[in-house]
Design goal:
alpha/beta, eight-stranded parallel barrel, two-stranded antiparallel ribbon, 10 strands, 47% helix, Pyrv_kinase-like_dom_sf
Amino acid sequence: MVQVNGDRPLNAVQRLRVMLSDPAKFIVCPGVYDGYTARIALQEGADCLYMTGAGTTMSRLGMPDMGLATMTDMLSNASMLASLSPTTPLIADADTGYGSPAMVARTVTSYIRAGVAGLHLEDQVLSKRCGHLKGKQLVDIDEFVSRIRAAVLARRQSGGDIVLIARTDALAGEGYDEALKRLRAAIAAGAEVAFLEGVTTREQAEDITRDLAPTPCLFNNVPGGISPDFSVKEARQIGYKIAIFPLLALEVVYPAVRKACRELFDKGNVGSVEPDGKRWGPKELFSVCGMDELMELDRQAGGKGYVDGA
C-alpha cells in the first residue's frame, strides 16, 4: 500500500492524484452500481472504481438514465460505495451538478464528505439523458464554466479534496471545435481531467488527447453505444489516462439473470453458470462482502457469536 511519510496510508483522493501524476500508470475503472458489484470488483483487484449514473438510476429506481435520479439518489449510492474501501479511489458521476452554482457547490461538498475521490460534471441541461442517446440539449458555455467554478470554490471552502473532471456532450450536436472550446474553458476554470463524451472515431480520440495535452483525458467505454469499443491497450496508445467501463456489470448481469429466470420458469430449477457445474452458496457469496472480516472483528472485540464459525 502507498504510504505518506512511511506510516500513514494514502486516502482515496490522494491515491487518485498519485495515479494521475504517474506517467507509467493507466487508470482502469470497472463500472459498479451497488455494493455487491463493487465488492466483486475489489476482490478481483480493482484499484479504482467508477460509479455509473446509469447503473445507479437503474438499480435504485428501476428506471432508465434519463435525468430521473436526484442528487440524493446519487450521493447515497456514492457514499456507500466509497465506504467499502476508503483507500480505493471512487470516481462518481455527478451529472449536471443538479442545479444552480450553489447547488453544484452543495453536490461537490457532499461528495467530498462522502469520501468520493473524483467526480465529473457535464454541460447538458438539468433534464439530461445518457450521453449515448440522441437529442441531448446543452447549456451555454458560460453556464457550463460556472458549474466548474462553483465546484472549485466548493472544494476550496470544504477543506477537503476531490478530483474535478469536466465532461462535454457538445460533440454530437455542436461539433468537435465547440467541444474542444468548452473543455479548454473548463480546464482554465479549474477542471483537472477532460472528458469528451461520444467520440465516434479513433481520429477524434487522438485529436482530443493531443489538443488538450498535458491535461489527462478520460475515455468512456460503452459497448453498443456510439463510441468505438477501445480496449485498455488501445485507449492507452491513443493517449488517454483513464478509461471507465460503466456498463461492465450491468451488461453481464442482464443475460445471466434472464437465463436464470427462463430456466426457473421453463424447467422449475436454475442450473449453474460455471462450466464445472459449481454452485455458489450463502457462505461464499457473503464472503465476497466481508463476512470473514466481520467475524474476525467480532472475535477480537470479545464477541461470542462466531466462535464456532458460520
